Amino acid sequence: MNAKQKMRHILDTLAEMFPDAHCELRHSNPFELTIAVLLSAQCTDETVNKVTVTLFEKYKRPEDYLAVPLDELEQDIRRIGLFRSKASNIQKLCRILIDKYDGEVPHLHEQLTELPGVGRKTANVVVSNAFGVPAIAVDTHVERVSKRLGAAKPDDTVLEVEKKLMKLVPQDEWTITHHRLIFFGRYHCKAQNPQCPICPLIDLCKEGQKRMKPGVMKNTKNKATKPKIANEG
């Protein structure tokens, strides 16, 4: 198989395993999604969702985040890693949204990446999930899985991984592929203790093959199992 044929095999397998993959950060509009993704840096979706369930009740508009002292916002998100810098970025972001975009989250990727605390990954998540623009956001799960399955090289940067996936994956499948790669990495091909013995893609994974003892790989090829979705981040 060439590179695109291998990717087609991966995409079809992931579609079978995770047909309903989706963004697990709870949100009801583009602004909430932007805040949630900003908070999710170096933090699990599960923890973010526990914080935003009350945060989004208290703060509904950019003006609300600016109406409180910074230390109060810090306390509201203190369960989140790097909560002090994230609280500061949220208030700076909200000020820009009000002053430059009439309080609305901008639709364009380059406008989003100019916002404090919003990097390329965050912008990709927002444009794809909030505005329906095809994008592949490369988080830790997408990067790990892409490298393990040979879609990217072990020493590729995050940007290089994104560019390679964009070439290999049909554009109309970018967003769903992002979600399925995350689900695969979060619930199956975990950083620690990946489920190699029952992995239907073990034939593409050199790292997984090294993990396996002789004879264990027997009868695993094409044995696609739909892992149980736990409430993990």
What would you note in describing this structure?
With 233 residues, the chain is mainly α. It is 54% helix and 0% strand. The chain is built from twelve helices and no strands. The chain has helices spanning 3-17, 30-39, 45-58, 62-66, 70-76, 83-101, 109-112, 120-130, 140-148, 158-168, 174-187, 206-211. Helix 5 crosses helix 6. The longest helix is centred in the middle third of the chain and has 19 residues, at 83-101.
Supply the key terms.
233 residues, mainly alpha, 12 helices
- Tell me the fraction of residues in β-strands, as a range: under 5%
- Overall mean pLDDT stands at 91
Radius of gyration: 19 Å
Major sheet: size, sense and barrel closure? Answer: none
Global shape: elongated
Uncertain runs are 216-224
Measured between the Cα atoms of the first and last residue, the distance is: 34 Å
Strand runs, count? 0
Q: Please give the count of helices.
A: 12
The level of helicity is 40-55%
Structural class: mainly alpha
Secondary-structure element order, N to C: HHHHHHHHHHHH
